[in-house]
Amino acid sequence: MIETNDVRKTYRVGDIxxxxxxxxxxxxxxxxxxxxxxxxxxxxxxxxxxxGCLDAPTSGRYRLNGLDVRGIDEDTLSDVRNQEIGFVFQxxxxxxxxxxxxxxxxxxxxxxxxxxxxxxxxxxxxxxxxLADRAHHLPSELSGGQQQRVAIARALVTDPAMILAxxxxxxxxxxxxxxxxxxxxxLSDQGRTIILITHELDVAAHADRxxxxxxxxxxxxxxxxxxxxxx
Length: 231
What we know:
The chain is globular. With 231 residues, the chain is of the alpha/beta class. 33% of the residues lie in helices and 29% in strands. Helix 3 crosses helix 4, helix 3 (100-110) runs parallel beside helix 5 (144-156) and helix 4 (115-128) packs across helix 5 (144-156).
């Protein structure tokens, strides 16, 4: 489903070249639950941006669900992101004065679905994360954990090929983090493809496979991780 081949990303800061990725090749099959772990500056966020079609590699190839994303125009990339990828971010990214149901409906509105169909699918997604009874609450009326669950529902509502979660528990307390990770576990059990970006070993341990990134390269790709801290 996901395949990168010798992906490199170089940023220019004045006359200085910053090599964020240095030849990353990785393959993720449909239905896998994968954590990408690394410390700040390791290149994991750059890799996430490329996998999420939010940025393009300087060189190398990235194929998503059979589509080579090199060279396609921004409008097509936007369609790919909306149809193929469900994003979950640390900061929730909910619209403050918009109720939970409308926040979840938003990707479907972009896709042009009629209001009735949007509402039905959004309610179903909220049920999946246990928040159907909070559908008409504003984000300010929800706890941090509930807001993140709304964000997960929004990511699910288009039935994407992949859920891409960037530090999804970074702003949550221990209890809320456990609830969110339980949802990802259930989604994985249902056959969803999940890629989790994190710097926390206890979060990465929920995945079935862990890819470690350091200095822009993959240093390990393994089915389980040790208890040593990320440095």
